[in-house]
Amino acid sequence: MNTYTRFNISFKKGEGCWLWDTRGKKYLDAVAGIATCSLGHSDRILRKKLVAQLKKLQHISNLYKIEEQEELSKYLTKQSCAESVFFCNSGAEANESAIKLIKKFGNKIYTGKETFILAAESSFHGRTLATLSATGQPKYQKGFEPMVKGFKFFKYNDIASVKKLFDECQKNDQKVSGVLIEPIQGEGGVIPGDKLFFKDLRKLCTQNNSLLILDEVQSGVGRTGKMWGYETLGIEPDGFTLAKGLGGGHAIGALLVKEKANIFSPGDHASTFGGNPFACRAALTVLEEITRRKILNNVISRGNQLNEGFIKLSDKFPNIINGIRGIGLIQGLVINNSYTDPKTITLKAFDKGLLLVPAGGNVVRFVPPLIISRNEIKILLKKLNLIFEEL
User: Fold this and answer.
1) Same structural domain for residues 180 and 132?
2) The model's pTM
3) Do 130 and 96 meet the contact criterion of CB atoms below 8 Å apart?
4) Number of neighbours of residue 305 by Cβ within 10 angstroms
5) By the 8 A CB rule, do 176 and 115 touch?
């Protein structure tokens, strides 16, 4: 169906941070399947583990205990603030699960009261009807009205606008059942969360007995230089969602919660494919390799290198670059749209053998595999310089 405006390019193979198209041209990949291929393309260990898993078991459904799923659950809860996990297949499904959980929490705690979920302007939580309703970007909602009721929106990193919504609900004898928010807005333009804002938000949710659920679909699993996005903010949420980088290119999503939010009962929610042995083996391999190879250290170092390079490019091309955003290996260049635009830069990058992805209307996003090397960052910056020189 006509659901994608695709670039006119097709790839036949990949290795590490590199892809080759059907004509044999080589590209440095700074997209990673949109922040998904954590270990790069065709990783040797991931291949080996998944081939072995296919020889053993790939799917049996959640009618039965699943050894790989239990192993992954233990790994995730041991390495995070969460105590329980629900598995699904994508970020939208993980956030859909979070929305249902917040709604159930509100209806359970505040019986008879009208409840709301708060979300941020410029956010992006998915394309199911409920996650679309929680997304603070009307352009994605156009044509799919009416939206699911029960959402109110505040300005990202603006605690006053959050307090205003809490106060409005209190005044109208309503309750806020929870807040769904990204630690760093990805699709909204690579906008990092402010630590003070999130600390105040955590306090506000605790005081009002409202759940704080973080959407870490894009920022989780090492992307920021920490394993989890909330670790960069100095807080612990009541729960958080994962997908993208968790499977290293294979479909898996998850909702992780603390005991307070562990309120689903059998029949409340389910997923036929969620947490199947193959997907769980992929996720386990990604997590184990991030630890074994000390990949988080690489994310921090390469992120700093990338940022330093962006500062130099910004000084050299002030007419093109309006700002630099991000952390670790989720960074963005804010483009002066009166001079050029992110899509033009993305198209020109193809000619230079570089893959980029726009975000938020005026940002070029950089989310390469977490294994990208020092030399590959140098190559990326050199290619960017050539692109800007030709604009």
Assistant:
1) yes
2) 0.97
3) yes
4) 17
5) yes
